[in-house]
Amino acid sequence: xxxxxxxxxxxxxxxxxxxxxxxxxxxxxxxxxxxxxxxxxxxxxxxxxxxxxxxxxxxxxxxxxxxxxxxxxxxxxxxxxxxxxxxxxxxxxxxxxxxxxxxxxxxxxxxxxxxxxxxxxxxxxxxxxxxxxxxxxxxxxxxxxxxxxxxxxxxxxxxxxxxxxxxxxxxxxxxx
Length: 176
Prior knowledge:
Layout: H1 2-8, H2 10-23, H3 29-43, H4 51-54, H5 57-60, H6 65-74, H7 82-116, H8 133-142, H9 146-150, H10 159-173
Helix pairs in contact: 2-3, 2-7, 3-6, 3-7, 8-10
């Protein structure tokens, strides 16, 4: 069952890894190149994205023309605007949310299989999305206003989210 689960989770693992790299990017020219490369990886996890082969006809089919054009212009020194960067980040989040929902279904399905066979589900199902929870929540609250942060209902948060929220509020109150 675990081998089957890992096979079913292969694409999510690749999307998860690409999204993790997106979350760790800085808003810089190098970060912009990485952002676009990882975004393309999220669109087509099985493809290989390399500068030299990116613009070739063989790879053109799986990535939208506008993304290819922007990526190629990055090597001429063009940088993403704040709006463009925000759009790529939002679209990456949307793609990740969809992949995470699909993965949750697979996790539920294999948890059920394990229970039906009398196995411990923790020995079958791996929560591949778990390591990014902290990074995702930190990214989300880092762009919120102090007013929006103070309006978050703590009762709806996980212990990890509550801890991160308190750290962000403390950081902001100290002016850092």
